[in-house]
Amino acid sequence: MKIVVAVKQVPDTATQVKISGSDPKAIDTAGITWIVSPYDEFAVEEALRIKEKRGQGEVVAVSLGPDRVKEALRSALAMGCDRAIHVNDPALANADTLLTAQALAAVIKQEQPALVICGRQAIDDDMGAVAAQVAEILGWPAASWIMEEAVDAEAKTIRIGRQVEGGLEVFDLPLPAVVSAQKGLNEPRYPTLKGIMGAKKKEIKDVKAAELGVTGTPQLAVKNLEALPPRPPGRVIPGEVKDAVKELVRALREEAKAI
Amino acid sequence: MANAFWCLVEDDRKGSPKKVMAEVLGEAARLSGGNVEAVWLTDKVSDDGIKQLGGWGASKVWVLENAAFSPYRGEVWAPVLAELATQQSPKAIVAPVTSKMRELAARLAARLGVGLAADCVGMAMDGDQLVATRPVYAGKLLAKMTWAKTPWIATLRPNVFKPADAQAGKSAAVEKPTVTIPPATMKLVERREETSTGLPELTEAEIVISGGRGMKGPENYVILEDMGKVIGAAVGASRAAVDAGWRPHRFQIGQTGRTISPKLYLGFGVSGAIQHLAGMRTSKVIVAVNKDPDAPIFKIADYGIVADLFEVVPALTDEFKKLLEK
Ligand SMILES: Cc1cc2nc3c(=O)[nH]c(=O)nc-3n(C[C@H](O)[C@H](O)[C@H](O)COP(=O)(O)OP(=O)(O)OC[C@H]3O[C@@H](n4cnc5c(N)ncnc54)[C@H](O)[C@@H]3O)c2cc1C
Ligand SMILES: Nc1ncnc2c1ncn2[C@@H]1O[C@H](COP(=O)(O)O)[C@@H](O)[C@H]1O
């Protein structure tokens, strides 16, 4: 069974993100540590587990982005993916989720996997859209925010549990299908030293938009980025707990009108 | 009407639109000067539900009632909505952020070949262009977004936009269009309901109480739930508490958990790591209780108490009780 995992490279969660001094649409990338988006690690892990459980198969990692993205693909290869595809084209530098999905869908059409696993959302743009959009473009069923999955013996269907408000919905989807990984699906492995060494020898293939037949333009654009409006300064309520608590409740009712 | 703002209806699966629809309809009315229509796909409409949508400002409700719409499946809903949108040419299609609507809006945007701005916290017209404001980089920055063409598709974060005032007696026209319903390939096996705590859902709650590693163990969350019952709050947790196995994943607040935007957030024994703040920093009022005066959460808190939470929580619950019994 062949599985494609979509991996996005994003700034580390602990990084201070600042607006670029020269371009109000972009962030200042100097000094940023780049990581694989955390949800995409769950996606990679799940793909590897499916392959290991079946004792055969292939896991292909795909990423769209500039040269630095190779590092994210190396991490995916070090975890155990078999090979990688890098959609590396300046023409896609300002891709929105739809253009990204079009490029990924084109790769997936060439690869013809039985399953595509994405992350729930990329933690830079926080859109949570690409998985569903890839499915729509391919005309495949999709399930977002999955917490569990099982592929049947013949690799014809996948049973997933997707998180919804107030519960979990369990569905059977015929393959091929697209799913997106929610936290709680698994605990991603750390690459072993052997994995890291082995990753250096694995293939990362570069592809361009034209080779994929992707000619679209972004439908959503950043007009500009802004810093958060500062929160009004807060105050620590001093005194004995019993007095502090009384004052807090008074303030919440009378000042903040929050209760 | 062409150029209307469409609001996709999230309901309780029993025939009533959710309260968050007042926010979506209210914002759509403000942006469009009142040219607002609701679009309701369901297996069960109710007259009261339609009245409710009218009262919140919908001039028309497109009712698509069919057993095929339950359970929600994107592969069925998106083509139906796309067909209707292509016939009717709405200017915008907006929906509240819920697990279903986030996926549906994405599929619909792909099918129509237009842009999607998810999880918006601000909307404004700039001339005849819609500009959306949305948090990016886990809420560390805000991005202003614009679309290349209509319909503008967006999902709106709950508890951020001003709800429409319900106007009794104002009613909506009902239209039941015929649409092609594609066959579903996904089959529902079961729905596992969460054991109800009797408290509101985390992402919908107006008040959220959050317990971190300072709670010391799963057995202690009962004191937060007791407070929750008194003030009608949901109880969430930090990742440290979730990863320790004290609370299920669905209760995690933060970058790799739920994003919440309640009117009041009360954090107990939460240090305020940047990834936790990512999920709650748009809360209107933030209260922090922590025994460490240097805990980063105090930097964004409106009110703080530096003390042992195990002393504060029962005392605070009592004070809330006194206040609300009056
Ligand atoms: C990729 C990534 C994603 C992440 N995503 C999330 C996320 O979504 N959500 C999230 O929450 N975290 C997330 N984290 C983890 C985050 O970095 C912190 O580790 C976590 O939020 C800490 O949880 P905490 O505040 O409960 O624990 P701690 O940081 O250990 O803080 C506990 C606090 O409790 C106080 N305390 C202890 N005892 C008492 C007492 N008796 N009374 C009063 N106060 C007391 C302490 O002073 C301390 O400040 C993520 C991390 C990474 C790397
Ligand atoms: N540039 C990209 N390259 C590879 N995968 C991506 C890219 N952008 C998004 N994805 C995938 O789509 C998921 C959702 O992304 P988003 O819709 O941007 O939040 C991510 O978790 C990835 O699995």
Describe the structure in your own words.
The complex is a heterodimer of chains A (259) and B (326). Chain A is built from seven helices and 13 strands. With 259 residues, chain A is α/β, with parallel strands linked by helices. In chain A, strands 9-8-7-10-6-1-4-5-11 form a nine-stranded mixed beta sheet, sandwiched between helices. In chain A, strands 2-3 form a two-stranded antiparallel ribbon. In chain A, helix 2 (69-79) crosses helix 5 (193-199). Chain A is globular and about 65 Å long. Chain B is of the alpha/beta class and 326 residues long. Chain B has eight helices and 16 strands. In chain B, the strands form three sheets. Chain B has a seven-stranded parallel beta sheet with strand order 5-9-4-1-2-3-10, with helices on both faces. Chain B has a five-stranded parallel beta sheet with strand order 13-12-14-15-16. In chain B, strand 6 (122-126) and strand 7 form a beta hairpin. In chain B, helix 3 (74-88) crosses helix 4 and helix 5 (221-231) runs parallel beside helix 8. The N and C termini of chain B lie far apart (49 Å). At the A-B interface, helix 3, helix 4, strand 7, strand 8 and strand 9 of A face helix 3, helix 4, strand 5, strand 7 and strand 8 of B. The site of adenosine monophosphate has 22 residues of chain A, from helix 1, strand 4, helix 3, strand 6 and helix 4.
Could you give the topology of this structure?
The complex is a heterodimer of chains A (259) and B (326).
Chain A: E1 2-6, E2 9-11, E3 34-36, H1 38-54, E4 58-64, H2 69-79, E5 83-87, H3 97-111, E6 115-119, H4 130-138, E7 142-151, E8 157-164, E9 167-174, E10 177-181, H5 193-199, E11 204-207, H6 209-212, E12 220-227, E13 235-236, H7 241-254
Parallel strand pairs in A: 1-4, 1-6, 4-5, 5-11, 6-10, 7-10
Antiparallel strand pairs in A: 2-3, 7-8, 8-9
Chain B: E1 5-8, H1 20-32, E2 36-42, H2 47-55, E3 60-65, H3 74-88, E4 92-96, H4 99-112, E5 116-120, E6 122-126, E7 129-136, E8 141-147, E9 152-156, E10 173-175, E11 187-193, E12 207-211, H5 221-231, E13 234-237, H6 239-243, E14 264-268, H7 274-277, E15 285-290, E16 303-306, H8 309-325
Parallel strand pairs in B: 1-2, 1-4, 2-3, 3-10, 4-9, 5-9, 12-13, 12-14, 14-15, 15-16
Antiparallel strand pairs in B: 6-7, 7-8
Helix pairs in contact in B: 3-4, 5-8
Bound molecules: flavin-adenine dinucleotide and adenosine monophosphate (AMP).
The site of flavin-adenine dinucleotide has 28 residues of chain B, from α6, α7, β15 and α8.
